[in-house]
Amino acid sequence: MEKKIHDVMIIGGGGAGLTAALYASRAKLSTVLFEKLVSGGQIASTDLVENYPGFTEGILGSEIAQRMEAQAIRYGTQIIYEEVKNLSRKGNVFEVASAEASYVARAVILAMGASFRMIGVPNEKELTGKGVSYCATCDGAFFKGKKIIAVGGGDSALQEGVFLTRFAERVIIVHRRDKLRASPILQERAKANPKISFIWDTVVDRIEGSRKVEAVLLKNVKTGEMQKILVDGVFVFIGHDPNSGFLKDFVTLDEKGYIVTDDSLATSVPGVFAAGEVRKGAVRQLVSACGEGCAAALAAQDFLNDHN
Q1: Reduced to 3 DSSP states, what percent helix, strand and coil does the chain have, rounded to the nearest 5?
Q2: Where residue 225 sits, what CATH number does that domain have?
Q3: 34-68 pLDDT tens trace
Q4: What is the pLDDT of residues 138-160, one digit of tens each?
Q5: Domain range for residue 248?
C-alpha cells in the first residue's frame, strides 16, 4: 500500500514544534508532528509560566502546552506519539522511521529541543518544578527572599547565579572542584556579589523534601564529609544536550551536537529546517522557540512553493 506523502513533518512537540505545526496546518499544508512523550516539551513540566506575553497572572506550564496542542490539532495537525529513530532522504521526499512505522513528507522541521543535564540524585526528578529548577530566568522570581543553591562552575552557573540574587536572599554555588571554569569576568562578578557564597570540592548527594525542596545533603569529594543544608530551591546548571542523536551524518551539527542553520533556519539539507533549542544559537525561552517555529514553518512553505 502506497504511503501518504505529507507536506510537512515536524519532529518534536515543544513550543517550537507546536507553533510550526499551527502555522503549517493553517496554511493548508498536510502536517504531521511526532512527539515521543507529551506535548509541550520542557514547558509542560514547568509549574507556572509568568513571562509568556498575554498572561498577566501567569499560566500553568501544562495548561499552555495543552492549549498549544489543541490549537494545532484544530487546524488539522496530526500528532503521532512515537519516538523518531531515523530520518533519511528518499528521492524528492524525506522518510521518518519510528519503532512502529515509517512516514514520508516533502519538508521536515526539526524541533526536538535540548535536555538539561540532571545531577542524577534521589528526589531530583520528583521535585523538579517543586523547588528543583534548571532555568533561573523561568523560575527565579518564585524565590524572593529565599535561600537556594546553584550547582555548577561554568559560565551558565555564574551568570544564572548572579541573576538569582535579584530575588533570593542567599545563593550558594556548589562546585565539585576547587576552581571555577567560568570566564574571569563572571568569576569577578560572582565573588563580588554579597549574596553569593561558594562551597568547593562538593557535590549534591541527595535532595530532601516531601512536597517541595526542604534541604540538600552535600558530600565533599575529597574528604567524604557529609553536610545537610536547609534550602528552598536547587538550581542545576551543568549543561544541556541537544536531542539530535539520530541526525548524525544527515545534517550539519556543531561540536556539541546542535543543528547548524542559516538565517532562514534552513539546515545543510534542502527542505529540512530547524527551530528551538536543538538549533545552534537558539535562546532557551518559550517565546523565542515559538517565534522560531513560526519562521521555520513559513520557510518550509516557501520551499514547498518553489519545488512544486
Answers
A1: 25, 30, 45
A2: 3.50.50.60
A3: 999 888 887 776 667 878 899 998 888 889 999 99
A4: 889 999 999 999 999 998 899 88
A5: 5-115+240-306
Q: Is 69 helix (H, G, I), strand (E, B) or coil?
A: helix
135 has catalytic annotation: yes
Same domain? 34 vs 167: no
Cβ contact 303:107 at 8 Å? yes
Last residue of a domain, one of 236, 263, 282: 236
189 and 162 Cβ atoms separated by less than 8 Å: yes
Are 251 and 232 in the same domain? no
Between the CA of residue 216 and those of 39, 145, 196, 235, what are the distances in Å?
31, 18, 17, 12
| Helices assigned H by DSSP within the chain | 15-26, 61-74, 136-139, 155-164, 184-192, 286-306
7, 47, 139, 262: the active-site residue: 139
CA distance 173 to 184: 16
Q: Could you say which of 7, 47, 135, 232 is catalytic?
A: 135
107 shares a domain with 248: yes
Tell me which of 7, 138, 232, 290 is the catalytic residue.
138
My answer on whether 78 and 135 are in the same domain is no
Task: Looking at the structure, tell me whether residues 53 and 141 fall in a common domain.
Answer: no
* Single-letter code of the amino acid located at 24: A
290 in catalytic set: no
Q: How many domains does the structure of the chain reveal? A: 2
10 Å Cβ neighbour count for 52? Answer: 16
Burial tier of 111 (Cβ tally within 10 Å: 0-12, 13-18, 19+): buried
Q: Answer with the one of 236, 270, 288 that is the final residue of a domain.
A: 236
pTM of the model: 0.78
